[in-house]
Amino acid sequence: MSFMRKPFVAGNWKMNTNSHASAELVKAIASKAPAIAEGSVHVAVFPPFVYLQNVVKAINSSGIAVGAQDIYYEKEGAFTGEISALMLKDIGCTYALCGHSERRHVIGETDELINKKVTATIMSGLLPILCVGELREEREASKTEEVVTRQIRKGLAGLSAEKVSAITIAYEPVWAIGTGLTATPQQAQEVHVLIRKLLEQMYDAKLAEETRILYGGSAKPSNAAELMGQKDIDGLLVGGASLKADDFAAMIQSAV
Ligand code: PEP
Questions:
Q1: Which domains are delineated in the chain?
Q2: Angle formed by the axes of helices 185-202 and 144-155, to 10°?
């Protein structure tokens, strides 16, 4: 297994915490999860933009990486309210989420826009996590494969294998995000295999084998180990449970 597929547990804080709580949360995670300092698992947190610098300072040299929940694809200029990947790199971010389901389905982002964001993220030197996943009605209509394939093909359009080697993919069935409904380890594994096969078709076997693919959707301490025990599940993207230091630390420890 490649270095890239070292277990990776990422916490998406969404629009939560505040200035004090964001720093306290990341410090508590570092102290409760010795696997981070031991280097046996990659961990990243994704605070709201306004607390990023706070969290970058608070992580000190704990080994936790910091990422942004979104970026805008232009470098700079008249884009009121937006934040570029270069700015995020400048303040110490390592990762950026692209195409999270809430950006797709609440904010209305398209595959084309997400492709621009993935491309700009890579060009800036940040590492993108491209999020994909089907809606409940799409799963019920047996369209999971079609939807995930479209999101990946369009999300990675125009990118060479070398560029795509910087990417982590997160499979997050929308019906499982924030709902308490988790995909079974078998359901998740099935889609992870499908994603790896697709990467092999689009690029090559080496890239498919080395790409890190996370599962996200109501992951919690009680199901983390079984999910990550699946051959093609390399870690978790965690929403709700990442806001509780004890739960998130337990999930990190179960990755080892
Ligand atoms: C997410 O927001 O990426 C997520 C997986 O949320 P939750 O764990 O709360 O379902």
A1: 8-254 (3.20.20.70)
A2: 40
